[in-house]
Write a structure and sequence with these properties.
The chain is of the alpha+beta class and about 350 residues long. The strands form two sheets. A seven-stranded mixed sheet has the order 1-4-5-9-8-7-6, with helices on both faces. The radius of gyration is 37 Å and the shape is elongated.
Protein backbone atom coordinates (compact mmCIF):
# COMPACT_ATOMS: atom_id res chain seq x y z
CA UNK A 1 0.00 0.00 0.00
CA UNK A 2 2.85 2.36 0.82
CA UNK A 3 4.49 1.66 -2.53
CA UNK A 4 1.17 2.26 -4.30
CA UNK A 5 0.88 5.65 -2.64
CA UNK A 6 4.41 6.59 -3.68
CA UNK A 7 3.55 5.66 -7.27
CA UNK A 8 0.37 7.76 -7.22
CA UNK A 9 2.30 10.79 -5.88
CA UNK A 10 5.01 10.44 -8.51
CA UNK A 11 2.49 10.13 -11.34
CA UNK A 12 0.39 13.04 -10.08
CA UNK A 13 3.33 15.43 -9.66
CA UNK A 14 4.66 14.49 -13.10
CA UNK A 15 1.25 15.12 -14.67
CA UNK A 16 0.89 18.46 -12.93
CA UNK A 17 4.36 19.57 -13.98
CA UNK A 18 3.48 19.34 -17.66
CA UNK A 19 0.21 21.29 -17.47
CA UNK A 20 -0.15 24.51 -19.48
CA UNK A 21 -3.82 25.43 -19.09
CA UNK A 22 -6.54 25.42 -16.42
CA UNK A 23 -8.73 22.83 -18.14
CA UNK A 24 -5.92 20.26 -18.14
CA UNK A 25 -5.20 21.05 -14.50
CA UNK A 26 -8.81 20.30 -13.58
CA UNK A 27 -8.62 16.99 -15.44
CA UNK A 28 -5.57 15.99 -13.41
CA UNK A 29 -7.26 17.00 -10.16
CA UNK A 30 -10.26 14.81 -10.99
CA UNK A 31 -8.03 11.93 -12.07
CA UNK A 32 -6.25 11.78 -8.71
CA UNK A 33 -8.50 13.53 -6.14
CA UNK A 34 -11.97 13.18 -7.67
CA UNK A 35 -14.62 10.73 -6.47
CA UNK A 36 -13.23 8.09 -8.80
CA UNK A 37 -9.61 9.28 -8.62
CA UNK A 38 -6.71 6.97 -7.96
CA UNK A 39 -5.88 8.47 -4.56
CA UNK A 40 -9.53 8.33 -3.52
CA UNK A 41 -9.63 4.66 -4.51
CA UNK A 42 -6.46 4.00 -2.52
CA UNK A 43 -7.99 5.70 0.52
CA UNK A 44 -11.02 3.42 0.23
CA UNK A 45 -8.63 0.45 0.52
CA UNK A 46 -7.66 1.51 4.06
CA UNK A 47 -10.28 -0.92 5.39
CA UNK A 48 -8.19 -3.83 4.10
CA UNK A 49 -4.90 -2.63 5.64
CA UNK A 50 -3.78 -4.67 8.64
CA UNK A 51 -4.37 -2.90 11.94
CA UNK A 52 -0.65 -2.62 12.76
CA UNK A 53 -0.02 -0.76 9.44
CA UNK A 54 -3.04 1.58 9.49
CA UNK A 55 -1.15 4.39 11.29
CA UNK A 56 1.76 4.43 8.83
CA UNK A 57 -0.46 4.05 5.77
CA UNK A 58 -2.88 6.75 7.01
CA UNK A 59 -0.01 9.17 7.59
CA UNK A 60 1.39 8.43 4.13
CA UNK A 61 -2.03 8.90 2.54
CA UNK A 62 -2.31 12.37 4.10
CA UNK A 63 1.19 13.31 2.97
CA UNK A 64 0.46 12.28 -0.63
CA UNK A 65 -2.89 14.14 -0.67
CA UNK A 66 -1.21 17.28 0.72
CA UNK A 67 1.66 17.06 -1.82
CA UNK A 68 -0.77 16.73 -4.75
CA UNK A 69 -3.05 19.50 -3.46
CA UNK A 70 -0.12 21.89 -2.91
CA UNK A 71 1.19 21.19 -6.42
CA UNK A 72 -2.27 21.80 -7.90
CA UNK A 73 -2.64 25.11 -6.04
CA UNK A 74 0.84 26.30 -6.97
CA UNK A 75 0.28 25.45 -10.63
CA UNK A 76 -3.14 27.17 -10.61
CA UNK A 77 -1.59 30.32 -9.14
CA UNK A 78 1.13 30.22 -11.78
CA UNK A 79 -1.40 29.90 -14.59
CA UNK A 80 -3.39 32.86 -13.24
CA UNK A 81 -0.25 34.97 -12.91
CA UNK A 82 0.71 34.06 -16.48
CA UNK A 83 -2.74 35.03 -17.74
CA UNK A 84 -2.60 38.34 -15.83
CA UNK A 85 0.83 39.10 -17.25
CA UNK A 86 -0.46 38.47 -20.76
CA UNK A 87 -3.44 40.74 -20.14
CA UNK A 88 -1.15 43.58 -19.06
CA UNK A 89 1.55 42.93 -21.64
CA UNK A 90 0.49 45.85 -23.83
CA UNK A 91 -0.42 48.20 -21.00
CA UNK A 92 1.43 51.51 -20.94
CA UNK A 93 1.65 52.53 -17.26
CA UNK A 94 2.74 56.04 -18.26
CA UNK A 95 -0.67 56.82 -19.83
CA UNK A 96 -2.88 59.11 -17.73
CA UNK A 97 -5.74 57.42 -15.91
CA UNK A 98 -9.29 57.85 -17.05
CA UNK A 99 -10.86 60.81 -15.23
CA UNK A 100 -13.34 59.84 -12.52
CA UNK A 101 -16.67 61.66 -12.57
CA UNK A 102 -16.91 64.27 -9.85
CA UNK A 103 -19.80 64.17 -7.43
CA UNK A 104 -21.78 67.17 -6.31
CA UNK A 105 -24.27 68.32 -3.73
CA UNK A 106 -27.91 67.38 -4.09
CA UNK A 107 -30.12 70.36 -5.10
CA UNK A 108 -31.84 70.17 -1.70
CA UNK A 109 -28.47 70.44 0.02
CA UNK A 110 -27.56 73.44 -2.15
CA UNK A 111 -30.82 75.21 -1.27
CA UNK A 112 -30.49 74.39 2.42
CA UNK A 113 -26.89 75.61 2.60
CA UNK A 114 -27.82 78.92 0.96
CA UNK A 115 -30.91 79.42 3.15
CA UNK A 116 -29.00 78.67 6.35
CA UNK A 117 -26.19 80.98 5.27
CA UNK A 118 -28.61 83.90 4.79
CA UNK A 119 -30.51 83.32 8.03
CA UNK A 120 -27.37 82.88 10.11
CA UNK A 121 -26.17 86.25 8.90
CA UNK A 122 -29.40 87.58 10.40
CA UNK A 123 -28.61 86.07 13.79
CA UNK A 124 -30.55 82.79 13.66
CA UNK A 125 -28.99 79.71 15.23
CA UNK A 126 -29.54 76.13 14.06
CA UNK A 127 -31.76 73.90 16.20
CA UNK A 128 -32.59 70.20 15.88
CA UNK A 129 -35.21 67.82 17.20
CA UNK A 130 -36.34 64.19 16.81
CA UNK A 131 -38.28 63.03 13.78
CA UNK A 132 -40.39 60.71 15.97
CA UNK A 133 -42.47 63.06 18.10
CA UNK A 134 -45.16 63.18 20.75
CA UNK A 135 -48.62 64.57 20.04
CA UNK A 136 -47.99 67.29 22.61
CA UNK A 137 -44.92 68.65 20.84
CA UNK A 138 -46.40 68.29 17.37
CA UNK A 139 -49.99 69.41 18.01
CA UNK A 140 -51.11 70.26 21.56
CA UNK A 141 -48.33 72.73 22.31
CA UNK A 142 -49.00 74.37 18.94
CA UNK A 143 -52.62 75.13 19.78
CA UNK A 144 -53.91 72.48 17.38
CA UNK A 145 -57.34 71.20 18.52
CA UNK A 146 -58.09 67.50 18.86
CA UNK A 147 -60.47 67.55 15.89
CA UNK A 148 -58.02 69.24 13.52
CA UNK A 149 -57.69 67.27 10.22
CA UNK A 150 -53.90 67.12 10.56
CA UNK A 151 -54.31 64.90 13.62
CA UNK A 152 -56.30 62.31 11.70
CA UNK A 153 -54.63 58.97 10.94
CA UNK A 154 -55.37 59.55 7.27
CA UNK A 155 -52.98 62.54 7.33
CA UNK A 156 -50.35 61.58 9.90
CA UNK A 157 -48.14 58.51 10.47
CA UNK A 158 -48.82 57.19 13.99
CA UNK A 159 -47.03 54.43 15.90
CA UNK A 160 -48.72 51.91 18.18
CA UNK A 161 -47.24 53.65 21.24
CA UNK A 162 -49.04 56.88 20.35
CA UNK A 163 -46.01 58.69 18.96
CA UNK A 164 -45.88 59.92 15.39
CA UNK A 165 -43.61 61.01 12.57
CA UNK A 166 -43.53 64.79 12.86
CA UNK A 167 -45.69 66.57 10.32
CA UNK A 168 -43.62 69.77 10.52
CA UNK A 169 -40.46 70.98 12.20
CA UNK A 170 -42.49 73.39 14.36
CA UNK A 171 -42.03 70.78 17.10
CA UNK A 172 -38.38 71.88 17.24
CA UNK A 173 -39.57 75.39 18.12
CA UNK A 174 -41.49 73.96 21.10
CA UNK A 175 -38.56 71.87 22.27
CA UNK A 176 -36.28 74.89 22.04
CA UNK A 177 -38.63 77.01 24.16
CA UNK A 178 -38.84 74.17 26.69
CA UNK A 179 -35.08 74.37 27.23
CA UNK A 180 -34.12 77.97 26.47
CA UNK A 181 -35.22 81.32 27.83
CA UNK A 182 -35.72 84.42 25.75
CA UNK A 183 -34.40 85.79 23.51
CA UNK A 184 -34.77 82.83 21.16
CA UNK A 185 -33.86 83.14 17.50
CA UNK A 186 -33.60 79.74 15.78
CA UNK A 187 -34.12 77.98 12.49
CA UNK A 188 -35.09 74.32 12.30
CA UNK A 189 -34.42 72.57 8.97
CA UNK A 190 -35.32 68.92 8.67
CA UNK A 191 -37.56 66.19 7.35
CA UNK A 192 -41.32 66.04 7.89
CA UNK A 193 -43.82 63.32 7.02
CA UNK A 194 -47.46 63.27 5.91
CA UNK A 195 -49.73 60.71 4.30
CA UNK A 196 -49.78 62.42 0.92
CA UNK A 197 -50.16 60.61 -2.37
CA UNK A 198 -46.85 60.86 -4.20
CA UNK A 199 -47.12 62.85 -7.41
CA UNK A 200 -45.33 65.66 -9.26
CA UNK A 201 -45.91 68.14 -6.40
CA UNK A 202 -46.29 65.94 -3.29
CA UNK A 203 -44.13 63.49 -1.36
CA UNK A 204 -44.87 61.60 1.85
CA UNK A 205 -41.45 62.64 3.17
CA UNK A 206 -40.35 66.19 2.49
CA UNK A 207 -38.05 68.89 3.86
CA UNK A 208 -38.93 72.02 5.78
CA UNK A 209 -37.15 75.06 7.11
CA UNK A 210 -38.88 76.80 10.00
CA UNK A 211 -37.85 79.80 12.05
CA UNK A 212 -38.76 81.29 15.42
CA UNK A 213 -37.88 84.60 17.05
CA UNK A 214 -39.13 85.38 20.57
CA UNK A 215 -38.20 88.40 22.68
CA UNK A 216 -39.74 91.51 24.14
CA UNK A 217 -41.33 93.86 21.60
CA UNK A 218 -40.99 91.59 18.54
CA UNK A 219 -43.42 92.97 15.98
CA UNK A 220 -45.06 92.07 12.70
CA UNK A 221 -42.71 94.55 11.04
CA UNK A 222 -39.77 92.41 12.20
CA UNK A 223 -41.35 89.35 10.60
CA UNK A 224 -42.07 91.15 7.35
CA UNK A 225 -38.58 92.63 7.13
CA UNK A 226 -36.92 89.27 7.91
CA UNK A 227 -38.77 87.35 5.21
CA UNK A 228 -38.51 90.06 2.57
CA UNK A 229 -34.74 90.23 3.10
CA UNK A 230 -34.45 86.42 3.08
CA UNK A 231 -36.36 85.87 -0.16
CA UNK A 232 -34.60 88.70 -1.96
CA UNK A 233 -31.26 87.20 -0.99
CA UNK A 234 -32.37 83.82 -2.36
CA UNK A 235 -34.24 84.89 -5.52
CA UNK A 236 -32.74 88.29 -6.29
CA UNK A 237 -32.96 91.85 -4.98
CA UNK A 238 -35.90 92.78 -7.23
CA UNK A 239 -38.14 89.93 -6.05
CA UNK A 240 -41.64 91.10 -5.15
CA UNK A 241 -43.03 89.73 -1.88
CA UNK A 242 -46.62 89.92 -0.63
CA UNK A 243 -48.34 88.77 2.54
CA UNK A 244 -51.92 87.41 2.40
CA UNK A 245 -54.00 86.93 5.56
CA UNK A 246 -54.42 83.26 6.38
CA UNK A 247 -55.09 80.98 9.36
CA UNK A 248 -52.72 78.72 11.27
CA UNK A 249 -53.58 77.37 14.76
CA UNK A 250 -50.23 78.44 16.23
CA UNK A 251 -49.94 82.01 14.90
CA UNK A 252 -52.23 85.05 15.10
CA UNK A 253 -52.28 87.00 12.88
CA UNK A 254 -51.15 84.54 10.20
CA UNK A 255 -50.08 85.04 6.60
CA UNK A 256 -49.25 83.16 3.43
CA UNK A 257 -46.19 84.57 1.67
CA UNK A 258 -46.21 84.84 -2.14
CA UNK A 259 -43.38 85.72 -4.49
CA UNK A 260 -43.77 87.16 -7.97
CA UNK A 261 -41.42 85.08 -10.07
CA UNK A 262 -40.81 84.64 -13.76
CA UNK A 263 -39.67 81.42 -15.35
CA UNK A 264 -37.67 81.59 -18.58
CA UNK A 265 -39.95 82.33 -21.51
CA UNK A 266 -43.05 82.76 -19.33
CA UNK A 267 -44.98 85.66 -17.84
CA UNK A 268 -44.32 86.52 -14.20
CA UNK A 269 -46.84 85.11 -11.71
CA UNK A 270 -47.41 84.97 -7.96
CA UNK A 271 -46.31 81.72 -6.30
CA UNK A 272 -47.14 80.69 -2.74
CA UNK A 273 -43.85 80.03 -0.98
CA UNK A 274 -44.23 80.08 2.83
CA UNK A 275 -46.49 80.47 5.85
CA UNK A 276 -45.83 82.76 8.80
CA UNK A 277 -47.35 84.81 11.61
CA UNK A 278 -47.01 86.14 15.13
CA UNK A 279 -46.83 83.36 17.70
CA UNK A 280 -50.25 82.81 19.26
CA UNK A 281 -50.26 83.70 22.99
CA UNK A 282 -51.87 80.30 23.62
CA UNK A 283 -48.60 78.66 22.48
CA UNK A 284 -46.59 80.71 24.98
CA UNK A 285 -49.09 79.85 27.71
CA UNK A 286 -48.83 76.11 26.99
CA UNK A 287 -45.01 76.22 26.95
CA UNK A 288 -45.07 78.15 30.24
CA UNK A 289 -47.38 75.56 31.77
CA UNK A 290 -44.97 72.79 30.76
CA UNK A 291 -41.92 74.72 32.00
CA UNK A 292 -43.61 75.77 35.21
CA UNK A 293 -42.33 79.35 35.06
CA UNK A 294 -43.09 82.72 33.48
CA UNK A 295 -40.21 82.78 30.98
CA UNK A 296 -42.73 82.92 28.13
CA UNK A 297 -45.39 85.04 29.75
CA UNK A 298 -47.59 86.11 26.80
CA UNK A 299 -48.09 89.46 28.52
CA UNK A 300 -44.35 90.17 28.36
CA UNK A 301 -42.95 88.45 25.24
CA UNK A 302 -43.95 88.30 21.61
CA UNK A 303 -42.53 86.42 18.68
CA UNK A 304 -42.91 85.36 15.11
CA UNK A 305 -42.61 82.04 13.31
CA UNK A 306 -42.31 81.06 9.68
CA UNK A 307 -42.02 77.88 7.66
CA UNK A 308 -41.34 76.89 4.09
CA UNK A 309 -40.68 73.76 2.01
CA UNK A 310 -37.11 73.34 0.87
CA UNK A 311 -38.30 71.02 -1.89
CA UNK A 312 -40.47 73.82 -3.27
CA UNK A 313 -37.61 76.30 -3.09
CA UNK A 314 -35.42 73.88 -5.06
CA UNK A 315 -38.11 73.35 -7.69
CA UNK A 316 -38.44 77.10 -8.22
CA UNK A 317 -34.74 77.93 -8.11
CA UNK A 318 -33.67 75.19 -10.51
CA UNK A 319 -36.79 74.89 -12.67
CA UNK A 320 -37.47 71.30 -11.57
CA UNK A 321 -40.83 70.23 -13.04
CA UNK A 322 -41.45 67.10 -10.96
CA UNK A 323 -40.79 66.75 -7.23
CA UNK A 324 -40.13 63.02 -7.61
CA UNK A 325 -36.88 63.77 -9.44
CA UNK A 326 -35.41 64.80 -6.07
CA UNK A 327 -35.73 61.27 -4.65
CA UNK A 328 -35.13 59.01 -7.66
CA UNK A 329 -31.31 59.24 -7.59
CA UNK A 330 -31.12 59.45 -11.38
CA UNK A 331 -27.52 60.38 -12.17
CA UNK A 332 -28.59 62.08 -15.38
CA UNK A 333 -30.66 64.49 -13.31
CA UNK A 334 -28.24 64.97 -10.41
CA UNK A 335 -25.19 65.73 -12.57
CA UNK A 336 -26.81 69.04 -13.54
CA UNK A 337 -26.11 70.43 -10.08
CA UNK A 338 -22.34 69.92 -9.77
Amino acid sequence: MLAQLDTIQTEALAAIAGITDEAALEEVRIAFLGKKGSLTAAAAGMRDVPAEQKKDVGQKLNEVREAITSALEATAAGLIAKKDAAAFANLDPTLPARPLPKGGLHPLSLVLDEAVKVLRRMGFALAEGPEIETEWHCFDALNTPADHPARNESDTFYFENGKLLRTHTSSVQIRTMEKETTPVRIIAPGSAFRRDEIDATHLSAFHQLEGLYVDRRVTLADLKGTLEYFFREIFGSKTEVRFRPHFFPFTEPSFEVDLKLQAAGRAAKWIEIAGCGMVDPAVFAEVGRKRGDAAYDPEKVTGFAFGMGLDRLAMILYGIPDLRLLIENDVRFLTQFR
